[in-house]
Amino acid sequence: MKPTVIIIGRPNVGKSTLFNRLVGKKLALVDDQPGVTRDRRIGDASIAGLEFTVVDTAGWEDEDPDTLPGRMRAQTEVSLEGADAAMFVVDARSGLTPLDEEIGRWLRGQSVPVVLVVNKAEGAAGESGVLESYSLGLGEPIPISAEHGEGVADLFQGLWPVIGEKAEGADAAATEQDADEDDEEGPLGPLKLAIVGRPNAGKSTLINRLLGENRLLTGPEAGITRDSIAIDWQWTAPGGETREIRLIDTAGMRKKAKVQDKLERLSVADARRAVDFAEVVVLLLDATKGLEHQDLKIADMVLQEGRALMVAINKWDVAENASSLFNGIRGALDEGLSQVRGLPLLAVSAKTGKGLDTLLKAAFEIRESWSKRVPTAALNRWFDDALDANPPPAPGGRRIKLRYITQAGTRPPRFVVFGTRLDDLPKSYERYLVNGIRAKLGFDAVPVRVVLKSPK
Ligand code: GDP
Ligand code: GDP
After folding, report:
1. What is the ipTM metric for this complex?
2. Does residue 380 have its Cβ closer than 6 Å to ligand 2?
3. The pLDDT of residue 456 is above 60
4. Is 91 exposed, middle or buried (0-12, 13-18, 19+ CB in 10 A)?
5. Ligand 1 atom closest to residue 35's alpha carbon, by position in its atom list
6. Are 190 and 232 in contact (CB under 8 A)?
7. What Rg value do the Cα atoms of the chain yield, rounded?
8. What family does the entry list (predicted)?
9. Comparing C-alpha atoms, which of 298, 302, 296, 284 is closest to residue 370?
């Protein structure tokens, strides 16, 4: 089943125009007059290969603005039930209205992920509307012009994290063995990097150090979420090569909070927000404190969200018993995080700058494997060997048949194994396969997802 995305918004913001744009046909009339009654429309949408079912709620609106919120809510609630995500559309030109705010508040209370879309953002007239929309507290708005087709591709960035997995699963199931065809993932853009960790680990010091030594491409950009900033800069690697990095900083914003206990909890919340935007997350530890439970909790969350994780031990300049500290943390990570083996672990000093180039180099490298696609032929060669070396068990005398494997996606790498009688496959065998994918196919330290499927 393809994922379903519902378009929500008050009348006249351009929902129908967006729907038509996504479906690629002039299906319905678009009218200047708010509230023109239309039928509920459902269509097949595709953005950069991401396929989903899109539902337009335009036309569920009442003419009478007084009764509008309630009625719209009732109608929207029904369709929200089956939806995997909602695109909440606001109008950059008119600015936010009380009704937008009400819908936004209501959506914040729903469990469905919301992608905030600011339509009519073409030209300078839309700029302030885009900035204003941050105040809805629904994350980073995606400016588009449905009418002119601008920015629609950027919706991919917003939708992929929430429906990508389901879409790719549907795709893999439907098309079976054709993974070779979409080997081209496109070039990787600036490295999206977040630095997380407990208070006083040295996050701010690290960020200042990195930025101080390198060229800022733009000034910090406020409000990727309400509590973070994004900074685009250029890292000059030791060889002289330059690489672009977009740093997500949730740390600096926390300086004002006083109570340590509150800070501890906030650091988890910060990390959670940061992973939404980051490809690679650096968990910063304090060498004078070692690895604590809270750190493992953050690490585990990052991996569960499917992000590439690295761990850096900061304040190495004042570390005592350095090698036993390092080995102790290594062991605790391997033991505490069963999803990955051999996470990159580095010693750094934000104060002296030691280890920072190595850290960034490793961050680019881990993004490579996080983004890598293994050709289907090579994948199945490995798969056949793995089955030969250790055939699946035969509970009750009937062998479980594993037929082939395909890589359904990247970032993080996702695989689908097709076979029969999969319900009987022991967890230990599944782990055997996952470990093989990691060790033999070059996904050592990144979270890998494997799904088992029986063809219909
Ligand atoms: P709905 O009621 O939310 O479905 O809105 P419609 O799709 O009917 O659009 C309402 C009005 O906004 C129409 O006049 C559209 O032509 C106009 N509109 C839609 N998208 C854009 C856009 O990107 N830029 C501008 N300037 N106008 C738009
Ligand atoms: P944050 O709360 O994670 O942003 O931590 P800060 O960047 O504010 O740093 C907390 C304290 O650790 C400050 O007093 C820093 O000067 C100190 N600090 C940060 N990095 C280092 C380091 O590499 N070595 C040493 N010795 N101190 C550091």
Report:
1. 0.54
2. no
3. no
4. buried
5. 2
6. yes
7. 24
8. Belongs to the TRAFAC class TrmE-Era-EngA-EngB-Septin-like GTPase superfamily. EngA (Der) GTPase family.
9. 302
What's the CA angle centered on 275, arms 272 and 278, to 5 degrees?
A: 155
Ligand 2, atom 18: nearest CA belongs to which residue?
Answer: 202
Q: Is 86 left (phi over 0), alpha (psi -120 to 50) or beta?
A: beta
Q: Is the CB of 12 under 6 A from ligand 1?
A: yes
Is 112 a residue whose pLDDT tops 70?
yes
Q: Which ligand 2 atom sits closest to the C-alpha of 205?
A: 7
Does ligand 1 come within 6 angstroms of the Cβ of 146?
yes
Q: Whose CA is nearest to atom 10 of ligand 2?
A: 200
- Residues 339, 120: Cα–Cα separation, whole Å: 44
Question: Which ligand 1 atom is at minimum distance from the Cα of 144?
Answer: 23
What is the value of pTM for the model shown? Answer: 0.58
| Model pLDDT, residue 398 | 84
Average pLDDT across the chain, whole number: 81
User: Is residue 41 within 6 Å of ligand 1 at its C-beta?
Assistant: no
38: Cβ below 6 Å to ligand 2?
no
Among the residue ranges 41-50, 122-131, 360-369, the one predicted with the least confidence is 41-50
Return the residue whose CA atom lies nearest to atom 13 of ligand 1: 32
Q: Dump pLDDT digits (tens) for 413-439.
A: 999 888 888 888 998 999 899 989 988
CA of 54 to the centre of ligand 1 (A): 17
Tokens at residue 411, please?
A: 């970032």
pLDDT band at 61 (very low <50, low <70, confident <90, very high): low
Rounded-to-integer distance, Cα 249 and Cα 196, Å: 9
